[in-house]
Write a structure and sequence with these properties.
- One of its GO terms (biological process) is carbohydrate metabolic process.
- This protein has 386 residues and is mainly α.
- It has one domain (34-351, 362-378): Glycosyltransferase (Alpha/alpha barrel).
- The protein is built from 13 helices and ten strands.
- The chain has helices at 3-10, 27-34, 57-74, 77-92, 126-141, 148-167, 193-206, 214-233, 258-273, 279-294, 314-327, 333-340, 364-377; strands spanning 43-44, 54-55, 171-174, 177-180, 236-238, 241-243, 297-298, 301-302, 345-346, 349-350.
- Strand 3 and strand 4 form a beta hairpin.
- The model is unreliable at 1-9 and 11-21 (pLDDT under 50).
């Protein structure tokens, strides 16, 4: 497949090696970043624990990605410091559960499927690790890390989490391909589709990184291919749109909410961006994917689910905004999404929901998603960069 043709199909990515123009940063982005602690950017309240601040690796990863992009586009030294601090925190805190395995999770105990199998704090989750790993890759690729040894160490940690999930068999095999588990425990092995999609994007990037051993690059790409094969087999085409259920192989499982639907499309398009073997298949489906994500709009409202009237949560708004501005910037949906951000702002900051029953000031995981979406809205000139 002609890579230039695919990138232009998505409508936003610049050719590798082109010099992006310096751009100003929107007031909304600056307002969001001003409320984040530069020394501990992923530390804050969360809607799950609204009365207590903790460190959230997912937030560190998203803020690392957002600030790395801001640095690339504006040259702002503050953005470089933020991005570097976030990436180094992930490096230093890569095994908070002390199991001698690299992986990132949540700072609280959680029973993911409400089945009595509660995971301890900092247990490795696939989506959390994917977002942390992507943040690290973005910080390295955007030139935020000056020290070669630190760059090498950061890439090695992304390899380590990939090797952990692959070598220890944290995935299910199907005739159509594979699906990584929701977390690194058998009790969470249901084929939840959005984490494996995001992790496929990370594996494909590793599979093209020149600092990675040739044999390992081939292995990472092969696993990414298998994940994408499974994801495409699970796609449902309905009214011209492509959708996925939350759990693969389960016709009773609900369709994803906005953030998880955006994760799946993001993971697939990132895989294709880095020359995945099945990029042709993704290119043929990209318009249906776009239409599927637009179904979260209901007139002047943004819904959490396509079939329910309840308003979207901020992280859904944020990641939908990110996906549209990275891959579909010429569509008006991006402007609609950006216009909805003010619905979540009050005197306490940006809230995870409209009129939330419990206020998590800052709601750092949600704010980080919105931050990542808004910086994508500030520029359409993306350099893929491994």
């Amino acid at each position: 497949m002609n890579r230039r043709a695919f990138l232009l199909t998505c409508g936003s990515l610049s050719l590798v090696g082109c010099q992006a123009p310096r751009r100003s940063t929107s007031p909304l982005y600056l307002n969001l970043i001003e409320d984040i602690n530069e020394e501990r950017p992923g530390y804050g309240y969360d809607s799950f624990l609204p009365q207590e601040r903790r460190h959230y690796p997912m937030a560190y990863g998203l803020i690392a990605s957002a600030e790395a992009l801001r640095y690339e586009q504006t040259g702002a030294e503050a953005a470089k410091r933020f991005a570097t601090t976030a990436a180094k925190w992930l490096l230093e805190n890569r095994d908070l559960d002390h199991d001698n395995r690299v992986g990132w999770g949540l700072p609280f105990a959680w029973d993911a499927f409400q089945d009595g199998s509660t995971n301890s704090p900092h247990h490795t989750y696939t989506i959390t690790s994917a977002l942390a790993a992507r943040g690290i890759l973005d910080v390295v690729s955007k030139g935020c890390i000056d020290d070669p040894q630190t760059r090498k160490s950061l890439i090695r940690q992304v390899e380590n989490v990939a090797d952990y999930l692959i070598v220890e068999g944290k995935y299910n095999e199907y005739p159509e391909g594979i699906c990584f588990w929701y977390s690194a425990t058998k009790e969470d092995s249901a084929p939840v589709l959005n984490p494996t999609a995001m992790f496929a994007g990370v594996l494909q990037r590793l599979g093209t990184h020149t600092s990675v051993n040739t044999d390992k690059r081939e292995k990472y790409r092969a696993f990414a291919d298998q994940v994408v094969s499974y994801l495409l087999s699970e796609a449902i085409v309905e009214d011209g749109s492509m959708l996925w259920r939350y759990v693969g192989g389960d016709s009773t499982s609900a369709y994803n909410d906005g953030v998880r639907a955006a994760y799946i499309v993001d993971g697939l398009l990132r895989y294709a961006e880095f020359d995945g073997l099945l990029a042709d298949d993704i290119e043929s489906d990209v318009e249906q994917m776009r239409i599927g994500l637009e179904r979260f709009r209901d007139g002047g409202k943004l819904r959490q689910f396509i079939s329910l009237a309840q308003p979207a949560r901020v992280w859904g708004l944020g990641h939908l905004l990110y996906v549209f501005n990275r891959y579909f910037p010429d569509h008006d949906y991006s402007n609609f999404l950006l216009s909805k951000a003010r619905d979540y702002s009050d005197e306490f900051g940006f809230q995870p929901r409209q009129d939330p029953p419990s206020r998590g000031f800052g709601a750092i995981r949600h704010t980080a998603h919105l931050l990542n979406g808004v910086i994508a809205a500030d520029t359409n000139d993306f350099s893929p960069g491994v």
